[in-house]
C-alpha cells in the first residue's frame, strides 16, 4: 500500500526539521483522499511497516474519534495523521497523555497558538476542540492477546471549515483563533518533532515531566464537574488530577475515584 505525491510545503518543512524527527524522519505515506489514516496504518503495520511510519491525508472520508464517533475531515482544512509505534509495555498507559503534550507543544511551536488539554484526548482552546487523538492497538497474529504495534492517530483543525451543526458548536481551528491560516507543513513538522521527543521520554521511563506538562495544559479543566457511566449507572463528581498511569481522578463525595476509560462528559 503506497501513498501519493507528498505536497511541496510538507516536503520543505519536514526537510528543514529532519534532524529533530527521530523515528518519523524516513517513512511518510501521503494520501489526497483516504478512508481513515488509522485503518491504513493498521494494515501497513500488519504488512511489516517499520516503527515511525507516518500516514497522512488531505482528507478522510471515514475518519473517526473515540467510541466510534465520526471525525469530520474537510478537504484541505486539517492535518489527519497516524503513526505506527512499537512502545515498551511500561509506556502504553501514558501514550495518549504523552501524545496530547506533544501535539499541544507542536501546534504552539508551529503556529504560535497556545493549546490546552482535556482528558483523555482533546486539544482545546478554551472549551472548543481544535484537535483530538485516537490510540488503537494492533496485534499481528490472529487471535493474539498481546499488543505488537500501536497506532496513534490525530486530527488538527488548521483552517476554518464547514462542519456538521453538532460539531460546529464545539469545534475551532488554528485559523479561527489566530485570524490567519497556519503553515500546514510547519505544524506537521513541529508535531512530529515534539512527538519524537515525547516518545523517547516515555520509552525510557521518564514520565514524570510529561505528567507535569500535561497538568499545566489541563489546569483550566481541573475543578470542573464531570459525569460518566461506570457500567452500573451514571456517576458524577469533580475532576481533580490524573495519577501516574494517566487515569482521571474524580472527587465523588468524600472519595476519590479513578476513571480509566469510557466517555467523560465535562459539565
What does this structure look like?
The mean pLDDT is 90. This protein has seven helices and twelve strands. The protein is α+β, with helices and mostly antiparallel strands and 267 residues long. The relative contact order is 0.16. It folds into two domains: 8-218, BirA Bifunctional Protein, domain 2 (2-Layer Sandwich); 222-266, SH3 type barrels (Roll), CATH 2.30.30. The N and C termini lie far apart (43 Å). The protein is globular and about 55 Å long. The protein is 28% helix and 26% strand. The strands form two sheets. A seven-stranded mixed sheet has the order 1-2-3-7-6-5-4, sandwiched between helices. The chain has a five-stranded antiparallel sheet with strand order 11-10-9-8-12, with no helix packed on it.
What's the topology here?
Blueprint: H1 8-16, E1 28-31, H2 37-46, E2 54-57, E3 78-85, H3 95-111, E4 116-118, E5 122-125, E6 128-138, E7 149-157, H4 165-168, H5 174-178, H6 184-203, H7 208-218, E8 225-229, E9 234-242, E10 248-252, E11 255-259, E12 264-266
Parallel strand pairs: 1-2
Antiparallel strand pairs: 2-3, 3-7, 4-5, 5-6, 6-7, 8-9, 8-12, 9-10, 10-11
In the predicted model, the low-confidence regions spanning at least 5 consecutive residues are none
- CATH class categorisation of the largest domain: Alpha Beta
Mean pLDDT: 90
Major beta sheet, strand line-up: 1-2-3-7-6-5-4
Alpha-beta content class = alpha+beta
Looking at CATH, which topology of the largest domain would you report? BirA Bifunctional Protein, domain 2
Say how many strands there are.
12
Number of helices: 7
How do the SSEs run, as a string of H and E? Answer: HEHEEHEEEEHHHHEEEEE
In angstroms, what separates the terminal alpha carbons? 43 Å
User: Radius of gyration, Cα only, in angstroms?
Assistant: 18 Å
Any guess at the CATH architecture of the largest domain? 2-Layer Sandwich
- CATH superfamily annotation of the largest domain: Bira Bifunctional Protein, Domain 2
Helix amount = 25-40%
Shape assignment: globular
The major pleated sheet works out as: 7 strands, mixed
Strand content: 25-35%
- How many structural domains? 2
Amino acid at each position: 500500500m503506497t501513498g501519493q505525491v507528498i505536497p511541496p510545503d510538507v516536503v520543505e518543512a519536514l526537510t528543514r526539521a529532519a534532524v529533530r524527527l527521530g523515528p518519523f524522519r524516513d517513512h511518510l505515506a501521503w494520501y489526497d483522499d483516504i478512508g481513515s489514516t488509522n485503518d491504513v496504518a493498521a494494515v501497513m503495520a500488519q504488512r511489516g511497516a517499520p516503527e515511525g511510519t507516518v500516514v497522512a491525508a488531505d482528507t478522510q472520508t471515514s475518519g473517526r474519534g473515540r467510541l466510534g464517533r465520526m471525525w469530520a475531515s474537510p478537504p484541505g482544512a486539517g492535518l489527519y495523521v497516524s503513526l505506527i509505534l512499537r512502545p515498551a509495555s511500561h509506556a502504553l498507559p501514558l501514550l495518549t497523555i504523552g501524545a496530547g503534550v506533544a501535539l499541544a507543544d507542536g501546534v504552539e511551536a508551529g503556529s504560535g497558538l497556545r493549546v490546552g488539554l482535556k482528558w483523555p484526548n482533546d486539544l482545546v482552546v478554551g472549551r472548543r476542540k481544535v484537535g483530538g487523538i485516537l490510540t488503537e492497538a494492533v496485534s499481528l497474529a490472529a487471535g493474539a492477546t498481546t499488543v505488537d504495534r500501536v497506532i496513534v492517530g490525530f486530527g488538527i483543525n488548521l483552517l476554518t471549515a464547514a462542519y456538521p451543526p453538532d460539531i460546529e458548536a464545539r469545534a475551532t481551528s488554528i485559523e479561527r483563533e489566530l485570524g490567519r491560516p497556519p503553515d500546514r507543513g510547519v505544524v506537521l513538522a513541529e508535531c512530529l518533532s515534539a512527538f519524537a521527543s515525547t516518545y523517547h521520554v516515555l520509552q525510557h521511563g521518564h514520565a514524570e515531566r510529561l505528567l507535569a506538562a500535561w497538568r499545566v495544559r489541563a489546569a483550566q479543566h481541573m475543578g470542573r464537574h464531570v459525569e460518566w457511566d461506570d457500567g452500573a449507572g451514571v456517576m458524577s463528581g469533580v475532576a481533580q488530577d490524573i495519577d501516574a498511569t494517566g487515569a482521571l481522578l474524580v472527587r465523588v463525595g468524600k472519595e476519590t475515584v479513578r476513571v480509566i476509560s469510557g466517555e467523560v462528559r465535562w459539565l
